[in-house]
Amino acid sequence: MKWMCLLGLFGSISMAETAPAPPDGEEAAYPAIERFVQVLEAVRARHPDVDRLAYERLVNHALEGMLASLDPHSAFIHPEMAALMKEHADFDPEIESLGLSMGVRDNGLYVMNVAPGGAAEKAGVLPGSAVVEINGKPATEGDPVQMIGALQKPAGAVTKLLLKSPNQPRPEEVSLTHRLVEHRSLPESKMLNKEKGIGYVRLAVFGSGCAREMEAALDELEDSGMKSLILDLRNNGGGDLHETVAMLGLFLPPGTAVVSTRGRGESEEPMKTPERQRRKREYPMTVLINRMSASASELTAGALQDLKRATIVGELSYGKGSVQNLIPMGNGTQLKLTIATYHTPSGRTPHKVGITPDVVVKIDDADRENFEKKCRLDSLDAAERQKVEAWQDRVLEEAVKVITSK
User: Fold this and answer.
1) What is the rounded distance in angstroms from the CA atom of residue 105 to the CA atom of residue 286?
2) What is the pLDDT of residues 297-343, one digit of tens each?
3) SS3 content of the chain, % helix, strand, coil (to 5)
4) Whole-angstrom distance, CA of residue 214 vs CA of residue 189
5) Were both Cys, which of 197, 220, 233, 377 would link to 227 (CB 3.0–4.6 Å)?
6) Which of 26-30, 258-262, 327-331, 388-392 has the lowest mean pLDDT?
7) Which residues of 8-45 are buried (b: 16+ CB within 10 A; e: fewer)?
8) 70, 86, 139, 83: which is closest to 111 by C-alpha?
């Protein structure tokens, strides 16, 4: 009888009106919840480690697994983690250079999310893995905020983690090399070929003010004789959506619908380019993307592709086109939950599928590594720099072919 109230609560929640409905009906809730309760009580009755059998702990860990099973961007925020986020307003659990985000739960640090294509995924790191040691030092000792902050390292640095994943009997060590994370929105702008009037701009992230930076760069290139543009969005992980829409307004007519948001059974009014445009820019464009082009960069490429404004060159993009909200829950916990998806003008979403280029270029790990090094030439020694400068960028070469054929 003690679980009847809980069953009734879940039943009332499942009857909330939301469209479209999940694949199973309300009648499926009761046997599923009853099975959960049976497993919960069996664990509490038989598992020998009684210190780990509190209802609060078991349910929180079960919820962690449930959220992790939905998508790479949803997560259950344990009360320990929620308290840290509340206490430290600037606390950032995401280690972009390793492609993972860290969390805190009752037994210390753990891997909350693993980003596709990053160093952590390549090394086989699994979400939910407990962090036992960081560079040989116990992860259970010390301040978790400081330990996570110490993981923020420059490209090329190595971090060793001793991890206990959910499906391994004992901890295993992984050695992860930090990758380049650029915070300057527009690190490179130049005439690629003055004779043919080909300009090149590399946008590393959609940061604050990047639309103004892009406009200034375009003005300078146009004054230098630019007749066509190659916009490089490779390794661009996204950023400010409003800056994205403003930047699209540099290349598309005023008031053009470029991005829309769709939730469960509802959609918002599409976001449109600004109503005023200082210069018309109707010259040919190609946009470069790769498997690390995500979110706002995918929406940019998708919008320009849908509206026939640019030719997209490269490889299939990352596949993140979703909206997450932090939702406060009981007992000091939170949900980081995907609640909607972004869509391009044609109605498609890059979420889980990515943007397929008009011209696909096959590249390998060596190409990816060389491109990353090319983005940080100043940090390379003379020999390595010479090697990278001699590297042939096949994606860029294909983009030049495409744009000169127009």
Assistant:
1) 46
2) 999 999 999 999 999 999 999 999 999 999 999 889 999 999 999 99
3) 35, 25, 45
4) 9
5) 197
6) 26-30
7) eebeeebeeeeeeeeeeeeeebeeebeebeeebeeeee
8) 139
Note whether 128 and 65 are within 8 A (CB): yes
pLDDT in tens, 343-356: 999 999 999 999 99
CATH class of 188-404: alpha beta
The pLDDT value given to residue 19: 54
* Per-residue pLDDT band at 167 (split at 50, 70, 90): confident
pLDDT 10s digits, 215-255: 999 999 999 999 999 999 999 989 999 999 999 999 999 99
Question: Any idea what DSSP says for residue 179?
Answer: P
Residues with Cβ within 8 Å of residue 294, at least 6 apart in sequence: 236, 237, 238, 317, 318, 319, 320
Q: How far is residue 285's CA from residue 309's CA, in Å, rounded to a whole number?
A: 7
Contact in structure between 387 and 377 (CB atoms under 8 Å) = no
- Output the pTM of the full model: 0.83
CA distance 389 to 400: 18
Domain locations along the chain: 76-179, 188-404
Q: How far apart are CA 227 and CA 255, in angstroms?
A: 25
For the domain covering 76-179, report its CATH number: 2.30.42.10
Considering only CA atoms, give the Rg of the chain.
24
Q: Which residue has the tokens 């039943």?
A: 11
Amino acid at 259: V
Q: What does the alpha-carbon distance between residue 228 and residue 402 come to, in Å, rounded to a whole number?
A: 11
Nearest to 404 by CA among 299, 313, 307, 317: 313
